Amino acid sequence: MTPTARVLTTGWISGLALFAMAATPAAATTITIASSDFDDGSQGWTRLAADPGISWQSAGGNPGGYMRYDNNVPYGAGSTTSIYAPPAYLGNWSALGVTDLSYEANIFTTGSVASIGDYTVVISGPGGAFRWLGPAPNPSVSWLPLEATLVESAWAAMSGDWGALLEDVTELRIEMAYYTNYTPFEITGIDNVRLNASAVPEPACSTLLGVGFAVLGLGGLLGRRRSRARRPG
């Protein structure tokens, strides 16, 4: 093999190798957009005035503080028995790449059970409203991990369009009542809420792609120069 062929071949092989690396999709990583452990307060989560049974507790969570719902405290008209997320959890979920909402739920006591509901999350905005219905309540597990995956099939439409809603989520609430009771009533808790998203490190991929093209060009340039240098006069 002539020196010219060696240079050209080496340049193309190196360039193609880097090009292949750049063309390979980068592995997606999970990031947390917003989180609440309630260790130093309600951390921006709120309740309606009609739900005085919802309060922040400094101890008894998993670990530390948590949000508590006591159905023995009388509720008022318009009660949703829910905690409402602060602004950090809201916005364009499509652009943010939101994948799921996770949290832990605990049932301290079921009270006298007349009927049983589900773990429930509701998101709403100008585009509509959807409800996630999780599994049936499980009082035998302390601080049960729950995950509301952000796929349309896992949510029930209350109004509007799924895609339009995800472009502008203006309200997120987590319901804390799971039972219909006669006295005594249920007491529940929520802790460790997280809004998660998927992120792909595209800048690194783009850099490799640029390097690959640069090496391809350099290999070809060197090959042409050596070819001209050895051409008979």
Oligomer: single chain
Radius of gyration: 28 Å
The best one-word shape is globular
Helix content: 10-25%
CATH-defined superfamily of the largest domain: Galactose-binding domain-like
- CATH architecture classification name of the largest domain: Sandwich
Q: What is the overall number of helices?
A: 4
Overall description:
The chain is of the alpha+beta class and 233 residues long. It folds into 2 domains: 3-25 and 203-229; 29-199, Galactose-binding domain-like (Jelly Rolls, Sandwich), CATH 2.60.120.260. It is 25% helix and 36% strand. It has 4 helices and 13 strands. The protein has helices at 3-23, 93-96, 162-166, 202-229; strands spanning 29-36, 54-57, 66-70, 82-84, 98-109, 112-116, 120-125, 128-133, 144-149, 155-160, 171-175, 179-182, 187-199. The strands form 3 sheets. Strands 1, 2, 3, 5, 9 and 13 form a 6-stranded antiparallel beta sheet that branches. Strands 4-11-7-8-10 form a 5-stranded antiparallel beta sheet. The protein has a two-stranded antiparallel ribbon with strand order 6-12. Helix 1 packs antiparallel against helix 4 (202-229).
Précis, in short:
The protein is an alpha+beta fold. The protein is 25% helix and 36% strand.
What are the main properties of this structure?
233 residues, alpha+beta, Jelly Rolls, six-stranded antiparallel sheet, 36% strand, globular, disordered N terminus
Note the topology.
Blueprint lengths: L2 H21 L5 E8 L17 E4 L8 E5 L11 E3 L8 H4 L1 E12 L2 E5 L3 E6 L2 E6 L10 E6 L5 E6 L1 H5 L4 E5 L3 E4 L4 E13 L2 H28 L4
Antiparallel strand pairs: 1-13, 2-3, 3-13, 4-11, 5-9, 5-13, 6-12, 7-8, 7-11, 8-10
Helix pairs in contact: 1-4
